[in-house]
Amino acid sequence: MDKTDALTLTAERLFDQNGYTATGMDRLTQAAGMSSRTLYKHAGSKVALMGRVLAARDRRFMQSMDVASVDALFSVLEDWICKEGARGCFFLRSLAETGGDTPEIAAAVSAHKAAFVERVHQIVAADLGHDDPALAEQILVLVEGATHAAVYRGVTAVSAARSAAAMLMKAQG
Amino acid sequence: MDKTDALTLTAERLFDQNGYTATGMDRLTQAAGMSSRTLYKHAGSKVALMGRVLAARDRRFMQSMDVASVDALFSVLEDWICKEGARGCFFLRSLAETGGDTPEIAAAVSAHKAAFVERVHQIVAADLGHDDPALAEQILVLVEGATHAAVYRGVTAVSAARSAAAMLMKAQG
DNA sequence: TCTAATGTAAAGCGATCGTTTTACATTGTG
DNA sequence: CACAATGTAAAACGATCGCTTTACATTAGA
Questions:
Q1: Residue B43, exposed/middle/buried by CB under 10 A (0-12, 13-18, 19+)?
Q2: pLDDT band, very low/low/confident/very high, at B173 (cuts 50, 70, 90)
Q3: pLDDT digits (tens, 9 = 90+) for B2-36
Q4: What residues of chain A, 85 to 104, have a C-beta less than 8 Å from chain B?
Q5: Are A55 and A108 in contact (CB under 8 A)?
Q6: How confident is the model at residue A173 (pLDDT cuts 50, 70, 90)?
Q7: What average pLDDT does range B110-131 have in this prediction?
Q8: Which of residues 26-85 of B touch A (CB under 8 A)?
Q9: Cα–Cα distance, A67 to A155 (Å, whole number)
Q10: B92:A88 CB<8 A
């Protein structure tokens, strides 16, 4: 694997688990197994590295969300949480931590959420056979809610969201 | 008002808007309009101050959530977001920022969420006339989802959650 | 008016931040 | 063997962190 990509993966893990601000560059050099000089050659700066981390996570997340039904959406979400742990949305956390004052982070979060909203609308439309923006927004809220309730309720939050989504899809559409 | 309480309120505003870690004590002294010596007399330490901030917010939030119907719950949430802004749950953000490694913060968040879960179950039970734990978990997910989707969708996320909750309450129970 | 308390302003504490630099070891290539 | 290139280890940069201390002003009660 490319060294820069490996660094990005390591940085994602540390930023995700310990927070962006709380993760120092010395800890990154140690975890990445390279000197700070080499690290900065690949990373550029901390915020530039964070930008690459967010872009990589967006790609990976969106790829895993390439499904055609609402039920599959929650199935994928459950898998994701079981594998990655439940700490809430990494993008929203990163945005909140920096108070929205870091342009690179704010832009990456905004782009990711816009793509995510669009994806949820597509999935709902594919599942129903026709558009339903209002229903799609409800599903969006359920996905976001499952993600964050799972922090303190575990994967059962995803089950609750999934069954609620099934009822809403059945009742409407 | 008591000086310590005023300091707690100021700290809550800064921690909430800019993040706990990103908010320095010098910024707090400036915003609180007192010298750092006096501030530390009232605050003790940064983490102790944060503990008091979380406790105060829990009290205020729980008091505002003293309602007897699911619809009123979302009405209160909408008011809260309009007044306070949408930055996601302050407790979950504080926990994530510190990676769960700060005992005072982790304990305060855990206590708040336990009380909140209990409250949602009570509201659903009062609304239905009988307990329904599964339905209450769905409503919990919708509240959490509205809180976090509102960060990038605005108050319309609360409307979507409210209508979804109404459908679920009608269909089940 | 003397005194003790309580405040402010500001310097300073050691530690850590993100980042750069210096000095040296290890490479693959001609 | 010579030679760039690329890496490491570690010191050092100025800035800022949470927190304490010093020196001085203000005030209220005896």
A1: buried
A2: confident
A3: 888 999 999 999 999 999 999 999 999 999 999 99
A4: 87-89, 92-93, 95-99, 101
A5: yes
A6: confident
A7: 98
A8: none
A9: 20
A10: yes
The Cβ of residue A146 has, within 10 Å, a number of other Cβ atoms equal to 29
Tokens of residue B38, six digits: 């006096």
Closest alpha carbon to A112 in A144, A139, A86 = A144
Residue B1, pLDDT > 90, answer no
Q: Which tokens hold the place of A147?
A: 């993600």
Return the closest nucleotide (C1') to the Cα of A38: D7
The distance of A14 to chain B (nearest Cα, Å) reads: 10
Q: B92–A95: do the CB atoms touch at under 8 Å?
A: no
Choose the closest CB to B92 out of A21, A146, A148.
Answer: A148
For residue A152, give Cα distances in angstroms to A77, A86, A149, B35.
16, 8, 6, 39
Q: Kindly tell me the burial class for residue B114, based on how many C-beta atoms sit within 10 Å of its own C-beta (0-12, 13-18, 19 or more).
A: exposed
Could you read off the pLDDT of B71-87 as tens digits, one per residue? Answer: 999 999 999 999 999 99
The CA-based diameter of chain B, rounded to the nearest angstrom, is 59
- Answering whether pTM is above 0.85, one says yes
